[in-house]
Structure prediction request, 285 residues.
Amino acid sequence: MALVTLKEVLKKAVPEKYAVGSFNAADHSVAEAILEVSENLGLPVILGVAEAHFRYVHLESFVPFLRKRIEGLRTPVVLHLDHGLSLDSIRRGLDVGFSSVMIDASSLPYEENASLTRQVVELAQKYGASVEAELGHVAGGEGDLTDGTEPDPNVYTDPEQASSFVEDTGVHALAVAIGTVHGPYKGTPHLDLDLLAEIRSKVEIPLVLHGGSGLSKDDFQNAIAKGINKINFFTECSLEAVQAARAVLATGTPMSYPDLIATTKSRVREVVAKQIQIFGTRPLK
Ligand SMILES: [Zn+2]
Prediction:
């Protein structure tokens, strides 16, 4: 029984001040890479599938496959729907077997965000699943690899609002906007750690940092010290896998497709293992 909810996997992370990595997969090989690292290190992980990536898989088969795979592991793993955008897609995700869902209504006004999040919390309860929501807005698209994005301080998370949001919705984890972006950064990232500390002082549930790729080891460790408990890390896995493929193809050595996949998968394993160590993830028991 290795499948757990987000609430379970993060229960010690707040008092013990560490983070659990959330890594997205849009195919079997990346999912395997993430799960193998978790098993090899004996540490929990959050395996995400983003709604934006649903088009790459047959969701009704892919998620049950992952669920079965996770149930055979010794380490606790969360099967998480990342950035669900509507009640319908959340319901679809819960029906196919995610143990945790994120509703991202962060571009809506506070009341609408809170109302939709509350509905998702009520729905997820029926499935025994956890819910993450976002308040303030983390800009940028994970698929957008062009120029990079700059964060907008006008949409950073307001600590007072965060406190009432958690109370109003009953959500289990909260993604905050404190200077990160999805996809590549334009310039050097600067996290507003004072703001994070203020949010942490007003909110007891686990806090989530999206847009982890591009941050330094110090950035992560400072953010974790100030209260981050879940870190979403995708773009660098994707870029590194492509880089590994380019490098091996450039040699011109004859190679089978399974060998090419093994090469990219091996690079993803390295990136994930490195990040889990940086996040200071601890065993659940
Ligand atoms: Zn995100």
Residues 83, 138, 182, 210, 232 surround zinc ion (CB under 6 Å). The chain has eleven helices and nine strands. The radius of gyration is 18 Å. The chain has a mean pLDDT of 96.
